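Input chain follows. Return structure tokens only.
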Amino acid sequence: MSKKYSKLDILRWIILIIIAITDIYLVKNPILSLLIFLLPITFVSLHSGNYFGWIHTLIMFVLIIAIGFLGEYLGVHTGLIFGSYYYNPSPSVNGFLIGGVPPLVTFSYVSMGYTCYILSRIILGYYKKVTGWMVVGVAAMAAVFMVIWDMSFDPTSSIVQHLWTWKKGGAYFGEPFHNFTGWFMVTFTFFVAIGLYLWLRSKSSDYLAKPSKLFLLEPIFLFAASAFSIVVKEMTPNPTTLQQNLALIALFGMGTVALIAILRLLTTKGFH
């Protein structure tokens, strides 16, 4: 990759900065909110298209959406995956529902799923093709990152914003332990699916020849921006106990992941 940044590279950073700002300041205009909601998936599409190529990107994202939606559908209707819960049927809260699941929720699966997958590759040192048991290793680490992210905001989305409701509550700020083990298994499943697909169907020549550290820093920035927005909300004049606890998880959970990834970039001259 050329050291000179292209217009597309600059565009991705502009999108990242807008995401970071709007994560902190709540936008109330419905149309503008929708556009802002689409920014993360726009960024990861541009990043992945450059990294893996557009065909592989499309298939990877379809796998995330399909498996993620299936997990949510089974979760809502059986309670076996995440625990007993339901999504708020109000269109103003979750948009339209299909089978009790808002399709828009899969956009978050894609944007943060891709981000955690790249962070896992960076930390483990695999920027090219991943083969063998490391397909599982990369998937497991990425799934752990997804759980840490989920633990940092899930109670706010449920208890404060009422996007979904837990019928029986739970020990983790009103959410069941089951939710996070289920979240790990669903995300681990689509990460393994992505890894197997890339292992079996992609070629080394399909990948970006030599991604720069600045290019790889982009998904780390997105992950860190999400954590930062949670921490900043604790800095209000009278933060709630929930805000303070989630800020600690974001700071020392997500923050640790981002720090390790950054150090990996700074201290490694070449990846596997």
